[in-house]
Amino acid sequence: MKKIALLALSCILITACSKQESVKQSEFMLDTICTITVYNENNKEKTADELISEAFELCSDYENILSRTIEGSDVYNINNAGGNPIEVSDCTIEILEAAKYYSELSDGAFDITTAPLSILWDFEGDDPHVPAAEDIETEKAKIDYTKIKIEGNTVTLEAPVEAIDLGAIAKGYITDKLAEYLTENGVTSAIISLGGNIYAIGENEIDDRPFNLGIQDPKAEDGSIIGYVTTADKSLVTSGDYQRYFEEDGVRYHHILDPATGYPADSGVCSVTIISDKSVDGDALSTSCFVLGLDEGMELINSLDGIDAVFIDNDGNMYFSDGFENGEIEYTSADSAE
Ligand code: AMP
Ligand code: MG
Q1: Where are the alpha helices (DSSP H) in the chain?
Q2: Which residues pair with 253 in a beta bridge?
Q3: Which of 37, 151, 328, 338 sits between 20 and 30 A of 200, alpha carbons compared?
């Protein structure tokens, strides 16, 4: 009896010892908290810690090119060129082409030339406030993505457009680049989280199951999760009215603007989550669908192959795209997961 008990104990110990630990690092970048967790890698030369550090260096390189506020970045140079052509890097061209594509697809709901309007509302500054109606009209007239002219690696903003901001698409684009980098370097199981942008590389190889990616409860002040999407090699991006906002006279004003009105989008939804292969698509579509609202947004998502969505309306009702209804993708509410 004793022998059997000891044998059983040693088996448990061996299992416990052979269980790997995940390796995790967080950095404040892209104006948000970014976390990379590696669950498994097959790299003979570099540790998971080294690979994560290199991925963060890459993230910082992209931020220095794509940020609107960092002096000397491509976007800074484009915005300060006074309408003259500016030579930019390949990645800036790639992201601008993607942004223009999503502007067309969303019929202008997504438009990176809303920048002057965002600056007027000052969501990211020290003094966010509701601007005067005539100022909103003036800045709204500067929105028109068709005036971003691209020729080779040269970009020109034609009048009336004065500035662009990639805040609605850059995190998705960078997430894809970091996922590519880690995968090329032997990482087979990891989670990249850049603020609201999450990407799962492979499955959780420590627990031997797919990753459960959480959707935040938009009404909970403590950031708790409302439910999980079970997936592998997918991106999950959320645009929500709780992510950046200010309150004035008891009214909440959030950061996603409707280019048609110049005011925060008031489409009846408070959170849109997109599940896609590429995070750049998810990022652009989450912002687009937030502006479009449930009916138009869901129609758009269901017309696109390999893209799924979860919408939450202002009353807390949840709506799922066809992929969930067909069982291609799995959602578990936090209550039933407990
Ligand atoms: P996201 O959190 O990805 O939905 O992006 C929101 C950010 O994108 C805002 O903080 C603005 O910088 C910018 N933005 C706001 N409204 C729009 C819009 N309609 N189209 C494109 N970018 C926008
Ligand atoms: Mg976005």
Answers
A1: 2-18, 48-66, 74-79, 90-105, 115-121, 133-140, 170-184, 279-292, 294-302, 322-325, 334-337
A2: 246
A3: 338
- The mean per-residue pLDDT over the stretch 130-146 comes to 97
Residue 154 has phi, psi (to 5 degrees) of: -110, 135
Burial of 150 (0-12, 13-18, 19+ CB in 10 A): middle
The single-letter code of the amino acid at 67 is: S
pTM of the model: 0.93
C-alpha 320 – ligand 1 centre gap (Å): 23
* CA of residue 231 to ligand 2 center, whole Å: 20
Q: What is the four-CA torsion angle of 291, 104, 328, 39, rounded to 10 degrees?
A: -80
| pLDDT of the residue at 337 | 63
Long-range pairs for 324-330 at CB < 8 Å and ≥24 separation? 329/229, 329/230, 329/231, 329/275, 330/229, 330/230, 330/231
**Ligand 1, closest atom to CA 124?**
10
> What backbone torsions phi and psi does residue 101 show, to the nearest 5 degrees?
-60, -45
Share of the chain above pLDDT 70, in %: 94
d(CA 87, CA 173): 20
Q: What local confidence, expressed as pLDDT, does residue 124 receive? A: 85
Ligand 1 atom closest to the CA of 244, numbered from 1: 10
- pLDDT of 201 reads 98
Rounded to 5 degrees, what angle do the CA atoms 106, 192, 336 make? 85
pLDDT over threshold 70, residue 13: no
Smallest-distance ligand from the CA of 102 = 1
pLDDT band at 10 (very low <50, low <70, confident <90, very high): very low
Q: Considering every ligand atom shown, identify the ligand nearest to the alpha carbon of residue 167 and give its number.
A: 1
Residue 104: is its pLDDT beyond 60? yes
> What are 44-74's pLDDT values in tens digits?
999 999 999 999 999 999 999 999 999 999 9
Query: From CA 311, how far away is CA 169, in angstroms rounded?
Result: 19
For tokens 């040693």, what's the residue?
10
